[in-house]
Amino acid sequence: ASTRFWFLHNRPNQDLRVSIYIYSTMGNWVKTISQTINTSGSRSSDIEWDGAADTGARLTKGVYFYQVRVKAPDGQTAVKAGKLLLL
């Protein structure tokens, strides 16, 4: 199982540092995805997660929480949180 994260932003043609933190329903951190993106428009490139923890172990099916943190070159940061279902 895998999923893709994407978001809209107002910083085209800028290097945006994206960090996605994934947590279990108990609040335990299980995965961090970090990368820099630069898009010509206002939609991010797809950021894929393969459903594995940072240890490489496959996670069990269920609900997980995520937090997406986007940092612009000038230091401004936007944060969005939500939940996802891993099937």
Largest sheet: 4 strands, antiparallel
State the share of residues found in helices, binned by percent.
under 10%
Elements, N to C (H/E): EEEEEE
Derived from helix and strand composition plus strand pairing, the structural class reads mainly beta
Task: Give the DSSP E fraction (strand runs of 2 or more residues).
Answer: over 45%
Outline, from the CA principal axes?
Answer: elongated
Distance between the termini: 7 Å
Low-confidence stretches: none
Quick check: average pLDDT?
95
Tally the helices: what do you get?
Answer: 0
Largest sheet strand order: 3-2-5-6
The tally of beta strands, per DSSP, is: 6
CA radius of gyration is 13 Å
Topology:
Layout: E1 3-5, E2 16-23, E3 29-37, E4 47-49, E5 62-71, E6 77-86
Antiparallel strand pairs: 1-4, 2-3, 2-5, 5-6
